[in-house]
């Protein structure tokens, strides 16, 4: 079966409430392709590797978390941007990208999906007074030593995280996928035992150590693989179209 591209976009925009979320890039349709959609290929980032794999898979739509046209980027269509856009336009493939709307969604969002993968119980937002809070706070059903939780992350995500070991077992935890190491201050204020994100910066290590907080950097790409898959599955079931997630490995 196939669905009109416009219908697919309208439903994705509605489901993610993307029009209400201020972001660093345009959410939704970024490159327009053919008018009918029978196959969606999803991935974390609209890299050349993903685009080539999507063309090989005969995709009508590429659905990603990290798309194009970020604020303050060079607007010229040259270099890798030219090659990526040429691939999409030559093969009449659409590009749909959802950044913050896919981070915060309560069902298919990156943070909720990572919690499901790691067995974290969601209790609420990391910033309770911020209606746009991206991160979450929750708990483990059974307290774990930092090394035990690190092993769980490695088993589930398929990569060893960087760990700064805190002063005790992990009961309550805060997390925010991607490049959210800057939220460690909010994690300290939330009085949790651990903070999990994708990336690490030099000051993050000192903040964790000096507050006795366990910190885990599990990879920007690795922590954000699951929201776009869940969104792709939602759209595939909603419109009876095919969906294929393609993971292009990224150690960062």
Automatic annotation (TrEMBL):
The keyword Transcription does not apply. It holds the Pfam family DUF34_NIF3. InterPro entries: DUF34/NIF3, DUF34/NIF3_sf. This is GTP cyclohydrolase 1 type 2 homolog. A divalent metal cation binds at residues 65-66, 103, 220, 224. Keywords: Metal-binding. One of its GO terms (molecular function) is metal ion binding. GO terms for cellular component: cytoplasm. It comes from the Bacteria. Belongs to the GTP cyclohydrolase I type 2/NIF3 family. The keyword Metal-binding applies. Gene3D superfamilies: NIF3 (NGG1p interacting factor 3)-like.
């Amino acid at each position: 079966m196939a669905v009109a591209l416009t219908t697919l976009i309208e439903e994705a925009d509605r489901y993610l409430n993307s029009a209400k979320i201020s972001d660093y890039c345009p959410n939704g349709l970024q490159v327009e392709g053919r008018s009918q959609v029978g196959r969606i290929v999803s991935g974390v980032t609209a890299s050349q590797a993903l685009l080539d794999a999507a063309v090989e898979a005969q995709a009508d739509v590429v659905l990603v978390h990290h798309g194009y046209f970020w604020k303050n980027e060079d607007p010229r269509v040259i270099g890798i941007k030219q090659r990526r856009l040429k691939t999409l336009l030559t093969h009449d493939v659409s590009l749909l990208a959802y950044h913050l709307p896919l981070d915060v969604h309560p069902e298919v969002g990156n943070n909720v999906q990572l919690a499901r993968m790691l067995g974290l119980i969601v209790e609420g937002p990391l910033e309770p007074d911020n209606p746009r809070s991206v991160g979450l706070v929750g708990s483990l059903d059974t307290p774990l030593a930092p090394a035990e939780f690190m092993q769980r992350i490695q088993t589930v995500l398929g990569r060893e995280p960087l760990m700064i070991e805190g002063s005790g077992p992990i009961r309550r935890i805060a997390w925010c996928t991607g490049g959210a190491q800057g939220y460690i201050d909010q994690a300290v204020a939330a009085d949790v035992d651990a903070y999990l994100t994708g990336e690490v910066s030099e000051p993050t290590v000192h903040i964790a150590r000096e507050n006795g907080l366990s910190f885990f950097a599990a990879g920007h790409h690795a922590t954000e693989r699951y929201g776009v898959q869940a969104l792709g599955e939602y759209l595939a079931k909603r419109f009876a179209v095919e969906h294929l997630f393609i993971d292009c490995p990224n150690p960062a």
